[in-house]
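Entry type: protein chain
Record version: 2
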Amino acid sequence: MKLKISHVLLAIAIPTVIAGILWRSRSKPFSVPQGTTTLSRVQALPLQPTLAWQTLENHPVPFQNGLPYFSSDAQKHPRLILNGTWKKRRVAANHSLSFMTRTPEVLRVIEQETPDALSTELNAGAWSDHVVPGVENPAPDRYQDAAWYRTSFETPPAFKDQRVILHFGAAHYMADVWVNGQWIGCHEGGATPFSFDVTDVLQSGSNMLTVRVDNPPWRPFPSGDTPSTTDYPTIPYKTADWWNYGGILRDVELEARPTASIFRVDVRSETSEARASETAIKGIVVLGQFDHKNGPYELHFKLHRARITEENLLTPFAEDLVDPTEIVSTGSSSRTWTPSSETYGVVPFSLTYPNLENWNLRRPKLYVLEVELQSNGKILDHFFTQFGVRSIARQKTDLTLNRQPVFFRGVAVHETFPYAFPQQPPIPTGLRQDFQNIYDLNANFVRTGHRPAHPLFPLIADRLGIGLWEEIPVYWFEAKAFEAQLKRPIARQMFSEMIARDFNRPSVLIWGTCNESESQRERQAFIEDLKQVATKTDGTRLVAQSASGNDAFDATHEACDLMGFTSYYGVFYGHTYGPATIKALETMHAAHPDLPLFATEFGIWSEKDLSNSDAQVQVAKDTFEAFTSKPYLCGCIWWALNDWHTMITNPQSMGLVTLSGMRKPAYSTLQQLYASKESPVQLRWRSPTSWKPLRGKIDLQAECLSNSPVKSFALTLDNHDLAVTRDPKTGLFIAQLDTTTLSEGEHSLATRAETEDGTVFSETTSLFVDNLDKQ
């Protein structure tokens, strides 16, 4: 992301800042920082990643904290939701402690930060109320430090004789967790989930959960100082162009699982080139058994066609999409698992189904794979996962989806965490609003900011047919920062967690490695390392970066599957929007003739008072026209959908939608430009012929012109739906409006039309009612 015009020179001069890195090698320990109390002058080792890929039956399986890493496929096991009002206390943390290996000495000193944090009394000491999940430091609160959180809960009777897993959706940045005073583990990184098996530390009655979340301050921007060896390596580590939200940011819950259960089902789908009517569904089932009965266990597979409705669109459970009458038949669909002495095992499967339909952009076909675990005829567990049949590939300078060239019409979305600002709707409602705006924009692609999205986001994208570029927050990195990541690979952990969480999501088409970073030699080594992880563990998606667009000859693009670049010609570099963009595209193509080009960002700010809206509109028009003039450019992404809070120039107004939810003029402009790549829609008002002023009873009559039949047409006046009919002879859409029932003055009439091929047209018109002025 870029900055406002007042920061243009600073944005160009970013390479002068040098990263502060704690560690220089895996084996080299560091000394305990001065000022650390009651900790002996031992040499403490740096904290290493907690996730690792293990090989089971020749298949890579992600493990963290002794458990297979959980995907975003939630299951309907007994659960206890721990969201709600917790107790909280802010503390000034010694951040270096957060990055030390959790030896007993280190833990003892961390626990001394807040001596009553592990008390059995919830209200002990000076603790305030705090809603979880929720931002610790909503803008304009620039607090960047640690906070401790506590809550109590009763163990449900349904948890008896079950394995109990404690799940965190995300906590930013470094989280340590205690249950009943016993430390159970930690996690680094603020946008990916983590879990712990707490079976052995739960009590039958009341329990106490304590969480310490350290959110170290980002290095100032700009910063020309020389970093010391005690600088801490968060990701990102310097002030970025979004808000450094701290705290427990996503859901917290307990899940009770059978002692023999299914932990993951990883699905790959391939359409046979020899027989296009057949699709092979391949993958692995990851199982765990804790009762040591040693099986044998039977696995039974069923394939369902997913049925998506407004009622189940936001559900986290793939089971809710199942239409029990729509089971796709197959041949042999059973497998046997006989566990060894190990707790976990893998069962591979390959099933062939006839006539499965492809998942496509804005025309998705989804399926739900159900796996049933049995023993001696008794059902022990179920697992449901949604997936789609699709392929993404590079062919010369094209990107192909299901072997057909595709142009991605994109927009970026910065996730807004709970309680980040006063007007914010609840997360599911906010996600629904975002996707409505994405769909109405005629976009078919989203870049999920600079972090993995909320876990519901890819699920909804699957169901609406919106492609995704997901990435990790490796942002404005320099040489030493990349070198540090090759030695203490927390970025690799974040990348692996992202892959493991969203493995089955057909909407995720591109894994992003880094954004607008420097130091080509170190960056290329970093990209190649992450690409190797993606190839070995997934291999079904593209790997890319978003590099600064002012260097057409950047050699690191050759390590990627496409050339992703930010495009701010005429905004931050170059002198004109359109011509400068065209010249840059031609130079890039000449430098990288075998790579598809992808504009990962374009746009400009409107200013908070919308005084620069005309420039936003012009940038959209001129830049998109330049993009579509070159056949080797395969996609573009407007930055961003919504305005957002940033630690640099708060708030940032580059969005198409204000923080209050109002669509800006550039939204309608881009909507029409994106429609032009599919099926343009035009709206003509037949009545009234003039909007000012309106009196008495009038007919609203509109005509929609499109190459595709109009599927729906809606009118809303001041957010209230009007009854609309369609004249079968003229095809006009008609609504009656009685202005005598309205207050005098200005009103807002919103129009939305959607065609059969999914193209959307919308506009908002101001009406002026004046029944008092007689003429």
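Comment: The longest strand covers residues 260-271.
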